[in-house]
Amino acid sequence: MTHSVTLLMSEFVTHDVKRYIVTRPDGFEFTPGQGVELAIDRDKWSEEGRPFTPTSHPDDKVIEFTIKTYEEHEGVTRELSRLKPGAKLTMSDPFGTISYQGPGVFLGAGAGITPFIAIFRELASKGEIEKNSLIFSNKTPADVISEKELRHYMGENAHFICTDGDEPGYEYERVDKDYLEKNISDFGQKFYVCGPPGFMKAVNSALEELGASPESVVFEN
Ligand SMILES: Cc1cc2nc3c(=O)[nH]c(=O)nc-3n(C[C@H](O)[C@H](O)[C@H](O)COP(=O)(O)OP(=O)(O)OC[C@H]3O[C@@H](n4cnc5c(N)ncnc54)[C@H](O)[C@@H]3O)c2cc1C
Description:
Strand order of the largest sheet: 4-3-6-1-2-5
Bound molecules: flavin-adenine dinucleotide
Helix content: 10-25%
CATH architecture of the largest domain: 3-Layer(aba) Sandwich
Distance between the termini: 22 Å
């Protein structure tokens, strides 16, 4: 089913990521971690649906998206970033394979954090976030989405990894087999993985080599 929604506001979260607040259609329910297909309901853009992940709490009265803009390229994210409040969008019913299945390690890169934000917000509201940890990889500290909120939820259990930069408070490493071996003691727990294809492939194969069973690794196909 396709729902019609209205953009209520948008604002920058980082230099190239914005949060969008849209109206919530009556009866629209989602499980944190699921995605929807979103399209701008105007001329040729209405045919250009793209997958995005609601980052709001499932009980919120509005729906939030957290979306990285590809400014250099005339695509949907650039057009979304230029919309004004009142713009109409269409949104599909939710779909997807990432959902919370118990405490574990969340491994995210870039905008791949969005399903985890939705999951963490729900866990935090239920007081169930403590046993989880986060390894969040970005290019530079300026690229880290929702850093304050994630540090607030996870404290010492959040690792912010950057591949470039030198500001204190971040680990300048790559999330590879060596990193995981050094920083994780139990490979029998749950792992949640979301990020660009190169990150997913590298992390999933490192986890397998380190003994994580494929059934314990939750990722978007
Ligand atoms: C299930 C799912 C959930 C997702 N959730 C989110 C989310 O919550 N937030 C989020 O930010 N992203 C999310 N994504 C990713 C998001 O769908 C894409 O970033 C989005 O579809 C890009 O749309 P676009 O029209 O701007 O770019 P597209 O035209 O679809 O291009 C996609 C990619 O190709 C590159 N590209 C293509 N052509 C050019 C060109 N000419 N010049 C430069 N680059 C080019 C872009 O850099 C971009 O990476 C999700 C993806 C999936 C599969």
